[in-house]
Amino acid sequence: MSDQACILIFGIDETASAVARMLLLSGYAVAIHQPTPPTQLRRKMTFVDAWYDDASMLDGVQARRADLSSDFLIGLGNRMFIPILTHPLGEVVERWPWDVIIDAQTPGERRFERIKSHAELTIALGPGPIAGLDCDLVIETFGPDVGAIVRSGRAGSNAPTERDKIPNDAHSSIASETGIFTTGKIIGETVSVEEPLGFIGSTPVTSPVAGRILGLQRNGRAVVAGTAVAEIATKANTQVSGSGKTDQLIARGVVFAIEMELAGWTPVSLDRFL
């Protein structure tokens, strides 16, 4: 595999976006594959808005939606931005000779798990895929060994309370009915308890607590009754934008795994020393 490796990432959530950003800054040609409209609320911690608005920034790195082949080739060639591809998987995989494919889809929302045959090196993040069967490597995303490389078997089970401590400070505002959500609020804005965050038709959607908006559904999006349309953080130090610390650790683990493969490094088993 060349040190000019081209890398395709499945997914666009916080972890996928952090991985894409770090790989681009490490000198790799990177693209994101997200064929369906993303629903993540913590949009300032992802490249989600680029899917809708054609471009967005995350910690100084830009991603752009690339529906045209020319946009895709420019981004991959000059590495000034990350192209977001929305075409079907088969078309995207055949469109370019990808050296590395990374399955960074949110656990529980994976559209497919077996990617091993799609590229020279395949990596999956988090619980679900089996290293050696579904992919070549798995990266731990939960627990005490975040960013660790698994070469055989599955990653550990998910433990959301250990991730960045952000979920501990996420208070959800739930849609009481199905309809179009409209809002004039922005992520990071301070709100009071019971303050309207937006409306579904003429029905207000209010904040369950006082704090800052951590996540917010896009204005004009259809929402379903019972689903979260906003998340409120009550702690002043809760991060509401940029890549979180845990996602950065995961991203470093991915970069390290790729660099090891490029260098032809073979892990040494310690079993014979035990």
Give structural notes.
By secondary structure, the protein is of the alpha/beta class. It folds into two domains: 6-160 and 244-267, Rossmann fold (3-Layer(aba) Sandwich), CATH 3.40.50; 167-233, RNA polymerase II/Efflux pump adaptor protein, barrel-sandwich hybrid domain (OB fold (Dihydrolipoamide Acetyltransferase, E2P), Beta Barrel). It is 20% helix and 26% strand. The chain is built from five helices and 17 strands. The chain has helices at 14-25, 48-53, 69-78, 89-95, 245-263; strands at residues 6-10, 29-33, 55-58, 61-65, 82-85, 100-103, 121-125, 137-139, 149-150, 171-174, 179-182, 190-191, 196-200, 203-206, 211-216, 221-223, 228-233. It has a nine-stranded mixed sheet, with helices on both faces. It has a four-stranded antiparallel sheet with strand order 10-17-15-12, with no helix packed on it. It has a four-stranded antiparallel sheet with strand order 14-13-11-16, with no helix packed on it. Helix 1 crosses helix 5. The longest helix has 19 residues, at 245-263. The chain is globular, with a radius of gyration of 19 Å. Mean pLDDT is 90; it is low at 161-166.
